[in-house]
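User: Design a sequence. Structure:
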């Protein structure tokens, strides 16, 4: 921290704590473990190599809900899911960004972004509501397909 301004990690931690409490209040059982003050929060989907991530970016001010694929053959698994794109997007009720291979990484990403979302603002309820709307849809849509 400098000049009394919270660090990005501190802001992210506060955001995840708030989101976890929001989910608890509304009976959404996706966030069950601690966040470790990172810019993402991961949720197991019940199959190794696939996870649901919630992410925030304090520089570019976006939120992201994603499926991250890091199996032994992520390109093949990504292609298999891409073949089910219309079924998946129907379940989530919106178009997704099929990013493919993550730059500087080994995994593949299928994501939904919400831009112009600054978590430094005092009212994060609209951001919590966005994750409330899309987190369960991602989980319920992808879990049986993966």
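Assistant: Done.
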């Amino acid at each position: 921290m400098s000049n009394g301004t919270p660090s990005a990690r501190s802001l992210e931690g506060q955001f995840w704590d708030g989101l976890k409490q929001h989910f608890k209040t509304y009976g959404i059982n996706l966030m069950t473990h601690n966040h470790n003050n990172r810019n993402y929060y991961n949720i197991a989907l019940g199959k190794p190599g696939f996870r649901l991530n919630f992410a925030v970016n304090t520089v570019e001010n976006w939120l992201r809900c994603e499926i991250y694929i890091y199996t032994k053959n992520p390109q093949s698994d990504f292609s298999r899911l891409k073949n089910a794109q219309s079924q998946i997007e129907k379940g989530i009720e919106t178009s997704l960004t099929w990013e493919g291979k993550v730059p500087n990484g080994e995994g593949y990403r299928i994501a939904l972004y919400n831009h112009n979302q600054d978590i430094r603002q005092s009212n994060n309820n609209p951001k919590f509501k966005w994750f409330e709307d899309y987190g369960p849809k991602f989980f319920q849509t992808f879990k049986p397909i993966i």
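The two ends are 41 Å apart (CA to CA). The first strand starts at residue 40 and ends at 44.
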